[in-house]
Amino acid sequence: MTKLPHTMPLWVIYSAMTLGLLAAVAFRLLTIVDVFSPALVRPLWYFGVFGYIFFFAYRYFITEKRRRAIMANRLLEKLNSGRELEYDDRVLITYVLSSLVKSKENINYLFVVTLSLIVVLVDIFLVLFYA
Question: Are the CB atoms for 44 and 26 separated by under 8 Å?
Fold first, then answer.
């Protein structure tokens, strides 16, 4: 192996997470904004779509980087063989595990689920009392 992968800097990780969260907020607010300011629906929708495009492209890149490191170096086979791992193998396993630990996708998932439930309740309230 010539070049060992590394995890992204924290500012990149947090920027991607923030963009994903803001895109999630934009989509969840569409039904509420439509009640009070229909002219903002389309800009909000575009922001959500482009935010998700960049966020999920980033997540795809990270997942593929991990997968390539595992597959190209046959890490699963080496782990299952029971033989002692070489230094580069240990570095690659450390990279994959560190990348998973540093990832903020669990925060994103929790935020999206919670926000979705809140917005559904608000939308039901608006339909019942403002329709």
Answer: yes
Q: Kind and range of the H or E element at 99?
A: helix 87-102
**Residue partners of 7: CB distance under 8 A and separation at least 6:** 13, 95, 98, 99, 102
Taking Cα atoms as reference points, which of 107, 130, 126, 129 lies closest to residue 118?
126
Question: Is residue 49 a part of any domain in this protein?
Answer: yes
* Residue 59 belongs to domain spanning: 10-130
- Residue 2 resides in a domain: no
Residue from 104, 114, 116 nearest 59 by CA: 104
Q: What is the total count of domains within the chain?
A: 1
Residue 1 CB partners (closer than 8 Å, separation 6+): 72, 73, 88, 92
pLDDT tens per residue across span 116-130: 999 999 999 988 988
pLDDT, one tens digit per residue, over 28-84 is 999 899 989 999 999 999 999 999 999 999 999 999 999 999 999 999 999 999 899
- Residue 33 is assigned to a structural domain of this protein: yes
Residue 16 included in any domain: yes
Q: Which two tokens stand for residue 130?
A: 């403002």
